[in-house]
Amino acid sequence: QVQLVESGGGLVQAGGSLRLSCAASGRTLSSHVMGWFHQAPGKEREFVAAISPSGGNTYYADSVKGRFTISRDNAKNTVYLQMNSLKPEDTAVYYCAARLSGLFLSRSYYPTDFGSWGQGTQVTVSS
Fold first, then answer.
1. Of 23, 25, 33, which is closest to residue 98 (Cα–Cα)?
2. Distance between CA atoms of 84 and 17, rounded to whole angstroms?
3. From residue 108, how far is each of 8, 28, 111 by CA, in Å?
4. Quick one: pLDDT band at residue 103, thresholds 50, 70, 90?
5. pLDDT, tens digit, for every residue of 33-54?
6. Quick check: 96 and 4 in contact, CB under 8 A?
7. Is the N or the C terminus of the chain less surrounded, counting Cβ atoms within 10 Å?
């Protein structure tokens, strides 16, 4: 199994930027599809972005396209989510997830598609 730890969350003003990191241990991420999800109070956990094992393919929720960028550095066993032009509606707990699969689907993922999860990091965007 893989252990995931998110970091980089915090409080930022609307229009600002944050970079989330997801550091893995236990095994390498090079064969994993990686994803980011977020969850606001009273809401279901929602897909944000996914990246293929090699980093060659990405997919984003419509709400974050053009603003967020998912990337990975397999040498560092780390996945990132660069969040620009943040909006108050981006406020949520952000979770990193890993799926042991070399098959990448260019569509939204469900939480059940991923077997390993981090504990989440809070992102709060003020107006």
1. 33
2. 4
3. 24, 24, 10
4. confident
5. 999 999 999 999 999 999 999 9
6. yes
7. C
